[in-house]
Amino acid sequence: MFKLLSDLSTVQRKEIPITLTGDVYVSGYAGSWVTLDSSGNAVLTSSAKGLAWPVWNESNRNGTQGWSPDVKQAKSVTVFFGKVRFYTDRFAGTPALGDPLKTDTSGKLATGSFGTDPIVAYCRKASFSYVHFGNTITVIEVETV
Question: Where are the beta strands (DSSP E) in 29-114?
Answer without folding.
Answer: 33-36, 42-43, 53-54, 76-81, 85-88, 100-103, 109-111
